[in-house]
TrEMBL record, chain B:
InterPro entries membership: DUF485, Inner_membrane_assoc
GO CC entries: plasma membrane
Protein name, entry field: DUF485 domain-containing protein
Ranges annotated as spanning the membrane: 25-46, 58-83
Species whose genome carries this gene: Candidatus Dechloromonas phosphorivorans
Top-level lineage group: Bacteria
Pfam families: DUF485
Keywords: Membrane, Transmembrane, Transmembrane helix
Length: 457, 106
């Protein structure tokens, strides 16, 4: 659990990515893309090479993000049904495979909308019930929470997770630009009819996100007092001991404390549906990278039939399901919010730089895009691998090789720099043509003329 | 064919106007968001205790909470402002550009 004010900072950083996506990317994405975000980078660059790269980095980001979601789902099911953690992870993985193979993007979009409304309603209800115990006074709430929590007044300070300046800045960069590099978020822009709808979606989505983050913040503080003082929610009934289901489950306990089993059941069901929808969206984004980019465009060079593309997509989904199960088991003990932060960090370094350069910088060539993309991806992954969270906690080495836990601050400049250098030094004939082709791409990006119609995936 | 269409749009002065106006507007807003957010991150990084100060003597509401809540609301208002202007003014201009390019094409 991200404690107190630290959590609030995380949430602001997630949120701040949305306006930036809207101002700088949304309409260009919609006007240039069709199915996956690599449509945009491949618009004037070498299809085969660029798509292969985008597919690989999409898959890596999807895997990182899957870890967080699988761990959350596993803990939730374990808490609700008393299943073994490993069994719970299997259940989620299988459900996800069934869901994506039979439902597809349209189903996931609808589920997203319905569950978002339920989540907002459920979360608001819990927050109101809990907050009413403090007469809706934020000051009383903070006063009590700080006096009870082991961090004391430090609860309202930026602290533990942002231990040093480098980590704080790196995390801020990663969360903000990571949103703009997540394949399953970018994919959503291609399901709306035009740039106008794309903008509206961002407005609604970010409004919900902002509202809900503030609800969660209040819920978290209430949880410290209401759940943190109730022996019922601790193993062996010891207040301050190990919380049942782990620290990630505070919100669930809070709903039970203020609304009884009914509310717990409702919120748990919604939370589970949310995780399932996110996991499915991720799997779908990963499967599309394999079937649409790798299979249809790179291997079959555009000659694949739709039926065979769908078949490949289903097989890919099943494979991703098993990958998710294995990752979920390996990373059981990891903090969810932290893992999400890492997934965003990798997305910010591997996808975002090449994507933004291909839309804004005329001089980007295939060679530059490849070096930038692979450079960002490899460096981000290595930074994560050598950091404490993997090198020490998972692989049990004595000391980390890379002192910081967040990769974005270091990996993003590497990606931009490599893309710049290798584009500038690219004097091939092809590069000249690619630079020339920017003019048409630019007009289309600005006006939407010639843009693809909405894709239903 | 479509390349010729793009060429016609590009030389239309309205296109230059659209690009300049929208670009300036979007970058200004982006700059506001980025500078406020990273200004805040710098405070978190280098002077975290400043955010833990109470807004007034004896209050338990801290500066950090107030600043963050403000940013949530302010950033979202900026998105709303952008969407409003883009969906009316900029889109109308875009449609004109495309229409004129078609006309010339005939």
């Amino acid at each position: 659990m991200v404690k107190g004010y630290d959590g609030y900072i995380y949430m602001l950083a997630f949120f701040a990515g949305w306006p930036i996506i809207l101002f700088l990317m949304a309409e260009r994405l919609r006007n240039l893309g069709k199915f996956t975000f690599s449509d945009i980078t491949a618009y004037r660059l070498d299809q085969g090479k660029v798509r292969t790269m985008a597919a690989i980095s999409s898959l890596v980001v999807v895997c990182f993000y899957l870890i967080a979601q699988m761990v959350g789902a596993g803990q939730l099911i374990k808490l609700l049904f008393g299943l073994e953690y490993n069994v719970a992870i299997f259940a989620v993985g299988i459900l996800m495979m069934v869901y994506v193979t039979f439902g597809g993007m349209v189903a996931t979009t609808w589920v997203q909308i319905i569950k978002a409304c339920m989540l907002l309603a459920g979360g608001t209800l819990v927050m109101v019930l809990a907050f009413s115990q403090f007469n809706f006074s934020f000051a009383t709430l903070v006063e009590k929470a700080s006096s009870l929590h082991k961090l004391g007044p430090k609860l309202m300070y930026p602290g533990s997770l942002l231990a040093d300046p480098v980590t704080a800045i790196s995390l801020g960069l990663g969360l903000m630009f990571g949103t703009a590099g997540l394949p399953h978020i970018l994919m959503r822009f291609f399901t709306v009819t035009d740039a106008k709808e794309a903008r509206k979606s961002v407005l609604y989505a970010s409004g919900f996100v902002a509202y809900f983050f503030n609800v969660i913040f209040i819920m978290g503080l209430c949880g410290i007092i209401i759940v943190g003082q109730n022996p019922e929610f601790f193993e062996a009934g010891k207040v301050g001991g190990k919380m049942i289901g782990g620290g990630n489950m505070v919100a669930m306990h809070l709903s039970k404390a203020v609304g009884g089993d009914m509310l717990l059941g409702f919120l748990a069901a919604v939370a589970f549906a949310t995780i399932l929808a996110v996991v499915s969206g991720l799997a779908l984004a990963g499967a599309s990278a394999i079937s649409h980019d790798l299979y249809a465009r790179v291997i079959k060079k555009g000659t694949a039939t739709e039926a065979s593309e769908i078949r490949v997509s289903k097989i890919a989904t099943i494979c991703l399901g098993f990958v998710a199960i294995i990752l979920g088991i390996l990373f059981e003990k990891q903090n969810i919010a932290f893992m999400v932060g890492l997934a965003f960090g990798v997305a910010a370094a591997a996808n975002f730089p090449v994507l933004i350069l291909s839309m804004y910088w005329k001089g980007l060539t295939t060679r530059g895009a490849l070096f930038g993309g692979y450079g960002g991806l490899v460096s981000a992954v290595l930074f994560v691998l050598f950091s404490k969270s993997v090198w020490v906690d998972v692989l049990h080495n004595p000391a980390p090789l890379f002192p910081y836990t967040q990769p974005a601050l270091f990996a993003m400049p590497i990606a931009f720099l490599l893309a710049y250098i290798f584009s500038k030094t690219d004097t091939s004939v092809r590069a000249g043509k690619e630079i020339e082709a920017f003019e048409d791409q630019y007009v289309r990006a600005q006006t939407g003329f010639g843009a693809s119609s909405a894709s239903n995936h | 064919m479509s390349s010729a269409m793009y060429e016609r749009m590009r030389v239309n002065p309205k296109f230059q106007e659209l690009v300049a106006k929208r670009g300036r507007f979007a970058w200004t807003l982006a700059f506001i968001v980025l500078s406020m957010f990273y200004g805040f991150v710098m405070v978190v990084a280098f002077n975290p205790t400043a955010l833990g100060q109470p807004v007034s003597e004896g209050s338990f509401v801290t500066v950090g909470v107030v600043v963050e809540l403000f940013m949530f609301i302010f950033f979202w208002s900026l998105t709303a402002v952008y969407v409003r202007r883009a969906n009316t003014e900029f889109d109308a201009l875009t449609q004109e550009i495309v229409k004129e390019a078609w006309k010339e094409n005939k």
